[in-house]
Amino acid sequence: MIIVGELINASRKKIRNEIKEKNYDEIARVAKEQLANGADFIDVNAGIFVGQEEDYLKWLVKTVQENTDAPCCIDTPDPTALEAAIKVHKGSPMLNSISLESERYEKMIPVLRGTDMKVIALCMSDEGMPYTTSDRMKIADKLVNNLVQNNVKIENIFVDPLVQPIGSGDNLGVEFLNAVEQIHKEFEGIHTICGMSNISFGIPKRKFANQVFMIMAITKGLDSAIMNPNDRRMMANIIAAEMLAGKDQFCEKYMNAYREGIFDLENKQPEKA
Ligand code: THG
Fold this sequence. Notes:
The chain is an alpha/beta fold and 273 residues long. It has ten helices and eight strands.
């Protein structure tokens, strides 16, 4: 599983003020902690600062990169802010994201053409949020085909079928899961990704629901997620689920995790729900 640490996001109450006040040490700490707990990319999102998003996003990229070796996942729907953040990013970031919304799509394609950057292809269009698997596939097909035509390599594309809160519709979980399965069937070598914790918005015991949904998604082929890497049970579940889904040759990662004590959850302070 390719893990994108989600915690540096201004929509979170805990971090909003730290970003607003450019608290360098605190952002550095949250970046380092996520990396130490297994994040491959650090998501940076300053979307709530209307008019100042670009400035904050650049500062976040610099702060994360001065303190970790991890690349960022630059999280903004605004192509101008995205381009500015790419310019200050060292090495190759993940772009979060392109979609089929026409303005975003048209501005993002030239940014991506011929580059080796990883990009999230979010299943959203001018018609709004998808509901069924088929709604998602129609958008995914167009996005992936257009990206490939613009010389973006299939292995750099991370399709996000869009996880929506289960409270908004009983079938939203299943429609998402079936899209993950179908995307991997249609496009060999592609990745799928999602904002895992969207599923539990508005219900109690969010971490518990996120952990179960992750296992269900792994059986469908999900191989990347934007999530909280500090959730120890989630990280342990991922290792076991990937082994059981045939993604861990000779059970090597599972055995290593066992030796490192990653499954000894009861000996450590449990995280608050
Ligand atoms: N797809 C893509 N990118 C995304 C998302 C997605 N980026 C943003 C989001 N969804 C994923 N990141 C987060 C980050 C934090 C939280 C949820 C998703 C989170 N939210 C609490 C809440 O909503 O209740 C905040 C509570 C608080 O701390 O105030 O923690 O789907 N491509």
